[in-house]
TrEMBL record:
<keyword id="KW-0963">Cytoplasm</keyword>
<comment type="pathway">
    <text>Bacterial outer membrane biogenesis; lipopolysaccharide biosynthesis.</text>
</comment>
<dbReference type="GO" id="GO:0005737">
    <property type="term" value="C:cytoplasm"/>
</dbReference>
<dbReference type="Pfam" id="PF00793">
    <property type="entry name" value="DAHP_synth_1"/>
</dbReference>
<dbReference type="InterPro" id="IPR013785">
    <property type="entry name" value="Aldolase_TIM"/>
</dbReference>
<dbReference type="InterPro" id="IPR006269">
    <property type="entry name" value="KDO8P_synthase"/>
</dbReference>
<protein>
    <recommendedName>
        <fullName>3-deoxy-8-phosphooctulonate synthase</fullName>
        <ecNumber>2.5.1.55</ecNumber>
    </recommendedName>
</protein>
<feature type="domain" description="DAHP synthetase I/KDSA">
    <location>
        <begin position="13"/>
        <end position="260"/>
    </location>
</feature>
<comment type="similarity">
    <text>Belongs to the KdsA family.</text>
</comment>
<comment type="pathway">
    <text>Carbohydrate biosynthesis; 3-deoxy-D-manno-octulosonate biosynthesis; 3-deoxy-D-manno-octulosonate from D-ribulose 5-phosphate: step 2/3.</text>
</comment>
<keyword id="KW-0808">Transferase</keyword>
<dbReference type="InterPro" id="IPR006218">
    <property type="entry name" value="DAHP1/KDSA"/>
</dbReference>
<dbReference type="GO" id="GO:0008676">
    <property type="term" value="F:3-deoxy-8-phosphooctulonate synthase activity"/>
</dbReference>
Length: 270
């Protein structure tokens, strides 16, 4: 099982969950989401890591929401971890951000577009934190062995790999579920990003679209082929979210979906 400070239910054989809003919009909404997801995962015995981006660096338009301020958002992430005794994660985009974010969170996430950036991977590895590398939309699963090796060669063996779909044409993504066992065979836990894999990027409006109604479909298939963890962005009112509104799962649907996914997990372990 994965090893992260403050991770509850780690002795179970359940998948683990990384979930939270796309971006930290403010303290109240972050606390609401963390509290509710924490209650659900405690009830179901699912190890849970709270996720929130302290800054969104990759946006389609210059007027898109990027954050409420780095220090302010990172402090909210730290407060979430302290208040609910949860591990937390956020993404980083450049080498100096690794040491900064590592002061506040337990897992550093490398965005898919940056998964080949050697200096970024080394900087993340050198913090001693878990490094979760999202597979680029442009890479084969086999190619992630090289990104993973950069972290290992930097003296950090705490590496996770996340599948998030492959670019299909100009405005869509598809998921090749063969990639999950391929990456698991490398020796690292593999996570399925059930929200970003349903994005429809490069829309003419400059606002990314998505198909959130298929989140459970992606999650079911991922669990069936052996994914160790799931990544889901969730929000009480996705339509009002300041980032990735078209992709997030309504928070009130999370418990029922996770309950059904646990049945699949139990079935494949029989």
């Amino acid at each position: 099982m994965i090893s992260v400070p403050k991770l509850k239910h780690s002795a179970t054989t359940n998948f683990f969950l990384i979930a939270g809003p796309c971006a930290i919009e403010g303290e109240a909404i972050a606390m609401e989401i963390a509290e509710r997801v924490g209650e659900i995962t405690d009830k179901l015995g699912i190890p849970y890591i709270f996720k929130g981006s302290y800054r969104k660096a990759n946006r389609s338009r210059v007027d898109s929401f990027t954050g409420i301020g780095d220090e302010k958002a990172l402090e909210i992430l730290a407060k979430v971890g302290q208040r609910f005794d949860l591990p937390t994660t956020t993404d980083i985009h450049a080498e100096p951000e690794a040491a900064l974010a590592a002061q506040y969170v337990d897992v550093l996430q490398i965005p898919a577009f940056l998964c080949r950036q050697t200096d970024l991977l080394i900087a993340a590895a050198q913090t001693g934190k878990v490094v979760n590398i999202k597979k680029g939309q442009f890479l084969s699963p086999e190619a992630m062995a090289f990104a993973r090796q950069k972290v290992l060669d930097s003296g950090n063996d705490q590496v996770w790999l996340t599948e998030r779909g492959v670019t299909f044409g100009y405005t869509d993504l598809v998921v090749d579920f063969r990639g999950i066992p391929v990456m698991r065979a490398m020796g690292s836990p593999v996570i399925m990003d059930c929200t970003h894999s349903l994005q429809q990027p490069n829309q003419t409006t400059g606002v990314t679209g998505g198909k959130p109604a298929l989140i459970e479909t992606i999650a079911r298939a991922a669990i069936a082929v052996g994914a160790d963890g799931l990544f889901m962005e969730t929000h009480p009112d996705p339509a009002s979210a300041k980032s990735d509104a078209a992709n997030m799962l309504p928070l009130d649907r999370l418990e029922s979906i996770l309950t059904r996914l646990l049945r699949i997990r139990a079935a494949i372990q029989d």
